[in-house]
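During the second half of the funding period, the structural biology subgroup turned its attention to how the target accommodates small molecules. The most pressing case was iron/sulfur cluster, which had performed well in the primary screen but for which no bound structure existed. We therefore specified the complex as follows and requested a full 3D prediction, including the ligand pose.
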Amino acid sequence: MEIREIECKTALSHSGLSELDYSLNPYRGCAHACLYCYAPAMTYEERRWGSFVDVKINVAQVLEQETKTKKRGVVGLGTVTDAYQPLEEKYKITRACLEVLAKRHWPVCIQTKSALVLRDIDILQKMDCEVGLTITAIDDSVRMAFEPGASSAGDRLSALEKLAAAGIRTFAFIGPILPYLTDKNADLEKLISSLADAKVGYVMADRFRVKPGLMECVEPVLRENYPQFADKWKAALKPESKYFDSVISEIGRLCAKYKIPFLDKHPFKIVETDSKQATLF
Ligand code: SF4
């Protein structure tokens, strides 16, 4: 793993997602090394994803300055990296960014695959925030094959439970749906019932999206670990396939059964009540 400490010029960038105003990425690259990661396509990164991490050592200082001049808005923390990847334990850069945002009363939406987020419960409890854990499959052997550097599915479920118990709004993102793995046997129902036990605030799901160069990473691992599904993946990924529609509708049905809201996007919205205060829904 190549690790570099770099200085950044900007911290907040405009978010392409309608429910987020800004993106904040304390690292470039991600040691979670998910095979299906969309970030390389979004960042035009040519280095092999998962083989490097650039640590933006001054990002909290830059953020402090930017929050003095930019219009307050919802910050998506970790949109093309995971803000709680293993290096965060040493660098505490995400934590420093949270301290800045908490001080300025900026709302935050975090999505991670790491139980390390629990370390920052003390700050998160004081903020307008929402924390989501991505879980692609409840069977941890799928995580080991497809998301080798991330926390186990069990640790992510436990993190959701602890966050909710601490009074923090939570959500679970089931995505990208890995054909015949996310929904293997009765795994989908096990996952949704575990999310209900963890008192997750809501669930979102998304299909697997094929980006340039992605299948070159995924296919060898799929063929080695799940050869029985390799051809079925090809059929499921065809544009005319209804496979993902049926899995998403099954997730919706199970969420209804276990009484968890199933949403198609984050409900984060700020309503300005006066120039200094805002209420979050
Ligand atoms: S955790 Fe997210 S950013 Fe990191 S490799 Fe996985 S999908 Fe990509």
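Two results from this model are relevant to the next phase. DSSP finds eleven helices and twelve strands in the chain. Confidence is low (pLDDT under 50) at residues 271-281.
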